[in-house]
């Protein structure tokens, strides 16, 4: 088999992705501030650039890895179910807060994108940024956005929310555990929620509940856009 | 493995609903809605799926890493002139969403507490 044929097979792309992720997890044990997603992505991109391999060739294997996003999204039903039983007395307030947060995220992103004169593909890629990555990239697909761009914007949103979310809410006197959990879980999905767990387990549970509710609420809120957008 | 096959079955069902009935939602989201519904109805027991689900959720980052690696080709799609506006919209919209989510939750909780006592 010559080099070209070998590149057209999925094995190396899958192996490279898993190896880069595993290496990134190992590195985090030594240096906890190194986000495994950045390290893993950086390794993959560097190796592709160094080898002169195109992103399209990498995606032959990458698509097999991406396939797992499907069952992983379905699996979010488990945290949704567990945390909503645990937090059943707060469920009404959480559900309302998540709906308001998702609506504000989509609405403000739409207005700002229009104000900034972004092209419709770029704007559609921005709209689902607050929902967890597995769902946001799928939504980008159905809205006519660019999944690769949505993936990056989703990660940036998560990091922004995890760094400044709790601080902003406390400054605005919305600093109860419940409000921080709902705000950060809704606006900054899993990356934001991962940070909350360090502060308080309960905040983390609220965040996980808010994040998983928003996986259902955000797609439903975006549904009307499907008919509005050309 | 039972858990994993249940999750895959729901993923498949979601896909079938999406394409068969023409529901304009991603198949995986429809799968999640159906799966969550079955959990709440007690048709699926938590023990059957808990382990597989925990593994998949924990390593979600791995599964979408190929999309993030797509950042190497983004300049094909995004004009440099759009970049500032895009990032500004992202930051502002995230802050608005944080405040709206946290704000309404706080408001409702305060009202409930007042009613309780």
From TrEMBL, chain A:
Q: Which domain of life is it from?
A: Bacteria
Fetch the InterPro entries from UniProt. Answer: CidB/LrgB
Looking at the UniProt entry, the stretches that span the membrane are 12-28, 35-54, 60-81, 93-118, 149-169, 178-197, 209-229
Query: One matching Pfam family, short form?
Result: LrgB
Q: Name one GO cellular component term.
A: membrane
Q: Endoplasmic reticulum as a keyword? A: no
Q: In its keyword annotation, does this UniProt entry include Zinc?
A: no
Q: Which residues form a coiled coil?
A: none
Signal sequence, start to end? none
What does the record say about its membrane topology? Answer: Multi-pass membrane protein
What UniProt keywords apply to this chain's record, in alphabetical order? Membrane, Transmembrane, Transmembrane helix
Q: Where in the cell is it found?
A: Membrane
Q: What is this protein called?
A: LrgB family protein
**What is the scientific name of the source organism?**
Paenibacillus sabuli
UniProtKB/TrEMBL annotation, chain B:
Cellular component GO terms, alphabetically? plasma membrane
Topology within the bilayer: Multi-pass membrane protein
- Could you identify this protein by its name? CidA/LrgA family protein
Residues spanning the membrane: 25-44, 56-78, 84-108
- Report the principal subcellular site: membrane
Instruction: Give one Pfam family, short name only.
Output: LrgA
Instruction: Extract the InterPro entries matched here.
Output: LrgA/CidA (IPR005538)
**Organismal lineage:** Bacteria, Bacillati, Bacillota, Bacilli, Bacillales
Protein localization: Cell membrane
What keyword terms does UniProt attach to this protein? Cell membrane, Membrane, Transmembrane, Transmembrane helix
């Amino acid at each position: 088999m010559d080099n070209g044929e070998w590149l057209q097979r999925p094995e190396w792309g899958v192996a490279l992705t898993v190896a880069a992720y595993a290496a990134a997890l190992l590195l985090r044990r030594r240096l906890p501030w190194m986000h495994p997603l950045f390290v893993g992505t950086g390794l993959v991109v560097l190796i592709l650039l160094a080898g002169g391999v195109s992103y399209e060739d990498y995606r032959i294997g990458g698509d097999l890895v991406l396939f797992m996003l499907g069952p992983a999204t379905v699996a979010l039903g488990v945290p949704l179910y567990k945390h909503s039983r645990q937090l059943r007395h707060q469920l009404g307030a959480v559900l309302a807060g998540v709906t308001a947060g998702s609506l504000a995220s989509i609405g403000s992103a739409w207005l700002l994108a229009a104000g900034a004169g972004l092209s419709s593909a770029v704007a559609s890629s921005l709209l689902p940024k607050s929902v967890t990555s597995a769902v946001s990239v799928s939504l980008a697909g159905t809205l006519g956005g660019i999944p690769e761009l949505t993936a990056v914007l989703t990660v940036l949103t998560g990091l922004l929310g995890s760094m400044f979310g709790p601080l902003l809410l406390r400054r605005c006197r919305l600093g109860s555990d419940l409000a921080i959990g709902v705000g950060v879980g809704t606006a900054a999905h899993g990356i934001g929620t991962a940070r909350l767990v360090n502060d308080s387990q309960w905040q983390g549970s609220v965040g996980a509940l808010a994040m998983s509710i928003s996986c259902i609420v955000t797609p439903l809120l975006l549904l009307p856009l499907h008919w509005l957008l050309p | 493995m039972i858990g994993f096959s249940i999750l895959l079955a729901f993923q498949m069902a979601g896909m079938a609903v999406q394409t068969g009935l023409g529901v304009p939602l991603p198949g995986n989201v429809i799968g999640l809605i159906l799966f969550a519904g079955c959990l709440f109805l007690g048709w699926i027991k938590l023990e059957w799926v808990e382990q597989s689900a925990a593994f998949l959720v924990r390593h979600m980052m791995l599964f979408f890493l190929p999309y993030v690696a797509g950042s190497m080709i983004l300049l094909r799609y995004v004009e440099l002139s759009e970049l500032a506006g895009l990032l500004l919209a992202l930051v502002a919209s995230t802050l608005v969403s944080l405040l709206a989510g946290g704000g309404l939750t706080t408001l409702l909780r305060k009202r409930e507490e007042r009613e309780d006592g």
